[in-house]
Write a structure and sequence with these properties.
This protein has 93 residues and is an alpha/beta fold. The protein has a single domain, classed as Rossmann fold, CATH 3.40.50. 31% of the residues lie in helices and 19% in strands. The chain has a three-stranded parallel β-sheet with strand order 2-1-3, covered by helices on one side. The longest helix has 12 residues.
Length: 93
């Protein structure tokens, strides 16, 4: 039986570290069951240490990701996101 992957959005303020890392790990570890996305309410530059950690762990995608504002992601996938996870208390307004 074919099941579609669970679509998960990790949301934080800057989309510069935690949400990027969470998206990368979710897609890396659970790619057969999860399609993860990340966004920020006020996107900033990806933190260099987040890139370093992900490279060291051999989890791809952090350094080349375009930072996405929550509104852009919401408009693109609002009907299909099944789970929304905030990775900091200030990430949800």
């Amino acid at each position: 039986m074919f099941k579609r992957p669970l679509k998960v959005l990790f949301l934080c303020t800057g989309n510069s570290s935690r949400s990027q890392i969470a998206e990368g790990w979710a897609n890396h570890l659970f790619s057969h069951r999860v399609k993860a996305y990340s966004a920020g309410t006020g996107p900033a530059q990806v933190h260099p240490l987040a890139v370093k950690v992900m490279k060291e762990a051999r989890v791809e995608g952090t350094e080349e990701k375009k930072l996405k504002a929550f509104r852009e992601v919401r408009d693109a996938i609002k009907r299909s996101i099944q789970e929304l996870l905030t990775v900091e208390i200030d990430g949800l307004y």
